[in-house]
Amino acid sequence: MRLFRSRAAIPYLLMAPGLLWLLLFFIVPNVQMLVFSLSEGTLRTGFTTPPDVWDVENYTGSISKFSGNFSNSIVYGGLATILCFLIGYPLAYAIAFKGGRWKNLLLFMVIAPFFTSFLIRTISWKIILGNDGPVLAVVRDFLHLVPANFSIIGSPLAVVGGLTYQFLPFMVLPLYVSIEKVDRRLIEAAQDLYAGPWRRGGMIAGAIFGAFALVALQVGLGYGAFIGEDAAPAAVAAAALVGAIGGGLVGAFLISQSFIRVTFPLSLPGVFAASILTFIPAIGDYVNPQLLGSPKTQMVGNVIQGRFLDQNDYPIAAALAFLLMAGILLAIFLYAKLLGTEELTGGTA
Amino acid sequence: MTDLDQRLRALPLTRRVFLQGSSMAGVAAFLAACGGGSTPSPTGQASVTPSEGATAEPTEAVIEGPLNFANWPAYMDLNADETAWPTIDDFEATHGIEVNYVEEIEANEDFYATIAPQLGAGLDSGWDLIVLTDYMAARVVRAGWTEEISAEGTPTAHANVRDELRGLDWDPDMKFHFPWQSGATGVGYNVVSTGRDLTKVEDLFDPAFKGKATMLSGYSDTFSLVGLMLKAKGEIEHVPAEMTFEEAQVVHDYIKPYVDDGHIRAFTGNEYLQDFGSGDTWVAFVWSGDLASSGGPDDRFVFPEEGSIIWTDNMLIPKGAQHKAAAEAMIDFVYDVENAARLALYIYYISPVKGVGDEIAKTDPELGDNPLLFPPAEIAAKMYPQPALSDEEDVKWADLSADLEGA
After folding, report:
1. Which of A134, A336, B237, B334 sits most deeply, having the most CB atoms within 10 A of its CB?
2. Ramachandran region of residue B100, left (φ > 0), alpha (ψ -120 to 50) or beta?
3. Is the CB of B210 less than 8 angstroms away from the CB of A154?
4. What is the pTM of this model?
5. Tell me, what DSSP letter sits at residue A137?
């Protein structure tokens, strides 16, 4: 009997360190932040905290005052996630299916940038995209496509590019794991059942997806807005056309029916995990907009950082942090509903 | 161009190249300085003056290191190959303690935020000596967050501080602060990129510089300079120190469209040095000495026609500092005329030490005319102090500048 009892306690013992960690470093700080978010005052003028005051205005006021920063966060975070997916899925697929004996080396190369400091990597982008950098040397000095005072630094493109670069490994690794798990015999079976190239269907699906992705990118980045022109309908149409042709070609010639019917559905849990892991840090990032952006491209993270560290306005900062957290949870919830919960937990895989 | 300008520019590696490389520059220089700590610098200026010896002796027994010294970038003289700070090396050699000199402060507000929680809670901030601009120094002193600087430990400083810097209302008897350097805020530009000489604040808004202009973060400098410009145009009435909140709103409304259309790319702290180095910035609000000491050969500073902003950065010993005696020794050390002259010659700011002008004139008569070190009367007449606001006003103004900065 005693033995049985102690056995029953084992799982709790195993969980204890983690739970204690969560209590100390997640629950307690969050409760404190919640208190701050309903308080008034700044570090210098002193705080009035609940129960003396319940300042809900911190929340309602922040939403309208910083709506621009919220939409920047959602748009840039979302675009970075889409770009990471477009770059990361083929990469993960190639490593998993065609990597052969180079698999480990290739995976190592995906995470190799992590061995350098986050800050140094972002500052390198500042140099690459900067006035003296190689990108402008080609585009401006060699091809003469842009005027002399054209700057990539400060544009949404630089911010989204930085985010995409920083969080690509978060996309590739979960995708790799789930693609790697796909049973090859199922693909063979599909081929035996006449799953061939996905010609017409692929062309249509690819064209639709490609057009959508490029229009999203074009509108999201406000392409051209920085050099003084607003996004024109003609530019959007051009983006849609280019995206449709590109997507159509890829769909028609590179994607097989076995991929669309077997491999991709089986990798969906990985897609879910990967996009969540990319989207959450991307939406909350403040280093990329700070170093690569302009005042127009600041995200919610910058406001939180500025309110906490420059203005010592803890109540607004805490309220914004909670709003961001709530927004992310809501987004994940909707996303999970969309993809279906069983797939996410790997129930059907 | 003065002799010293040319001499500095003839150096094999400019400070600018060093800075723009990466943010590791500071760390590298810091490591180099630590490594070189035991060896006296080879600059030949390592002579110890009698007054220092005299001050060092009675206190030497109690001075303990390391001295944790937080300062702004481009605020300490470097040797020819930019691997060591001669002044720091000399101090280490004189007092036999190590100095942990870190270029940690890029903006007053940012640094304040890193020390305020500890100081507010009565804890040691980890720094023994910090350097903050007038309004922020006053705020920290008024909050009671500074150690009293003992007069016995700092006789040279008490004797040599310039008279016009004494008797400030927030610390009339130099009990809590000593000025580090004074300087001006004006317009900096790269003459090759802009293609012409700039003379006014208004030049920053020239459409040709779209996307290549930056301003300073916070309201103290940016709102003051644009305020002076609008005053010259007759749109507002008061000089920066007397500007009302309504006038600050006018200044905000003037700048806002330029931020919205991308004309002003960023609001920066001292990192404008890197942006000038890479050519990402052509014109900016900058602090007077930086481009001369750490910029490229084509980077210029101009005192704008509308007027410039004068300020003083002050050394403070934060409450609870572990090595207070060492901090006092450092304050006294940089108030020695020879040391102060060497510092001023490199960093191009206005020295708070009496007799530095004569000392510099001895070695290099021409530099006595450098407007950065010794602003001539017609420029000095148009130098205005920054706004000094109450805590409540500060919150409102900070909101205005935060709105411009997009966060």
Report:
1. B334
2. beta
3. no
4. 0.78
5. I
